[in-house]
Design brief:
By secondary structure, this protein is an alpha+beta fold. The chain folds into 2 domains: 191 residues, Aminohydrolase, N-terminal nucleophile (Ntn) domain (Glutamine Phosphoribosylpyrophosphate, subunit 1, domain 1, 4-Layer Sandwich), CATH 3.60.20.10; 34 residues. Helix content is 23%, strand content 27%. It has 5 helices and 12 strands. The protein starts with a strand and ends with a helix.
Length: 234
């Protein structure tokens, strides 16, 4: 469990916004007592409170891209991170061993159209200095919490818990599961689509692939065992 707090489309004095982000992020420190980090650019401030599980030594956040021009604040776990890392071997220099860092090269290669590549639970906010744009997203069923709101100046806020936004936003909304949001869009857009969500697509379905079911169950067991060894589950 970690937390993120971000201010996007900054329209006030950057130093004042940065100090405010630090103050509001401290309200979430119970979610991440191992590390507090902050990133700021002309148009964005991202703060992070970290609970170290994967890569306890070098996984501090916000995580910067290879070029240092993209910043990522993320809460969650990407189960297939090693497979993604292997795909980028020789093409991208990872800064950490964090499972969530794979979001950065995926974004750089595909833009926002990479979320179906991720297997896991996540909520994140990413800022791209090169494009002066931001992106945020949440996992398909909303395991990881995420909220957003605006203030009287039109600045956009995002946080892992509602209480970090109540003092600074006029209205606060839950970020919908299975959605993403990028600069230029008015509202979050759905990215998670599956045929089985429509009854007519599955009403006559017959289960054939028992091997697939067994493999999925094995993956769930592996994740559970990893969490137990890390002390995440009791």
């Amino acid at each position: 469990m970690c937390s993120i707090f971000g201010v996007l489309e900054v329209r006030q004095d950057l130093n004042a916004v940065r100090q405010m982000a630090l103050r509001q992020s401290r309200l979430l420190r119970h979610r991440g007592p191992d590390w507090s980090g902050i990133y700021s650019a002309d148009n964005a401030v991202l703060a992070h409170e970290r609970l170290s599980i994967v890569d306890v030594n070098t996984g501090a956040q916000p995580i910067m891209s290879e070029s240092g021009h993209q910043a990522l604040a993320v809460n969650g776990e990407i189960y297939n991170h090693q497979d993604i890392r292997d795909r980028f071997e020789g093409r991208y220099s990872f800064r950490t061993q964090s499972d969530c860092e794979v979001i950065l090269p995926l974004y750089l290669e595909h833009g926002p159209d990479f979320l179906d590549e991720l297997r896991g639970m996540f909520a994140f906010c990413l800022f791209d200095e090169d494009q002066d744009c931001w992106m945020m997203a949440r996992d398909p069923i909303g395991i990881i919490p995420l909220y957003y709101g605006h203030d009287a100046n039109g600045q956009l806020f995002v946080a892992s818990e509602m209480k970090a936004l109540m003092e600074v936003c006029n209205q606060v909304h839950e970020f919908p599961p299975g959605h993403y949001w990028v600069s230029g869009q008015d509202t979050p857009q759905r990215w998670y689509h599956r045929d089985w969500e429509r009854f007519e697509a599955v009403e006559n379905a017959v289960m054939h692939d028992q091997e697939f079911v067994a493999d999925a169950a094995q993956q769930v067991t592996i994740v559970r065992d990893n969490h137990q060894r890390a002390g995440v589950l009791n």
